[in-house]
Design brief:
The chain is of the alpha/beta class. 30% of the residues lie in helices and 30% in strands. The longest helix is centred in the N-terminal third of the chain and has 13 residues.
Length: 125
C-alpha cells in the first residue's frame, strides 16, 4: 500500500528545535525526516522522497541559503521554508536573491523560552 503522507525534511543544527519541529509535523499528519546539517541532508538516501524542506539559514558548515542555492542549481523545485533566529537585512537580502517571497518578523517559531530569540520564517518556491 502506498503511503500518501507528505514528507517534510527539517534541517537544523539545534537538536532540540529540530526534534520539536519533527514532532509538530508528525502531529499534523506529515512524515518528518530530520537532518543536523546541510551536508547530512545532501548525503541522505536519494530514494527518500522529500515534498518540502524546512531549512535553518544559519547552519554550521554549509548555510541554509547555500544549500537552497545548490539544490536550485541542480534543478530541484523542492519548496523551501527558511527559519532563522538571525533576522538581519543581509540575511533577508540573501534569501530574497534565492527567491524568498515572505519573511515574517512575528514569532512563528520560538527557540527555548529562556533565550528570548524570536525566529523569522521565509518561504521560497
Amino acid at each position: 500500500m502506498e503511503n500518501l503522507r507528505r514528507t517534510v525534511a527539517v534541517v537544523d543544527d539545534d537538536a532540540s528545535l529540530r526534534r520539536s519541529l519533527g514532532r509538530l509535523l508528525n502531529a499534523y499528519g506529515f512524515l518528518a525526516e530530520e537532518y543536523a546539517s546541510a551536508e547530512a541532508f545532501l548525503a541522505r538516501d536519494p530514494k527518500t522522497a522529500i515534498d518540502c524542506l524546512v531549512l535553518d539559514i544559519d547552519l554550521s558548515g554549509m548555510s541554509g541559503i547555500d544549500l537552497q542555492r545548490r539544490l536550485k542549481a541542480e534543478g530541484t523545485t523542492l519548496p523551501v521554508i527558511f527559519i532563522t533566529a538571525l533576522e538581519t537585512a543581509f540575511v533577508k537580502a540573501e534569501a530574497e536573491k534565492g527567491g524568498m517571497r515572505c519573511l515574517s518578523a512575528e514569532a512563528i517559531f520560538r527557540s527555548c523560552a529562556d533565550c528570548g530569540h524570536q525566529q523569522g520564517i521565509g518561504i521560497v518556491s
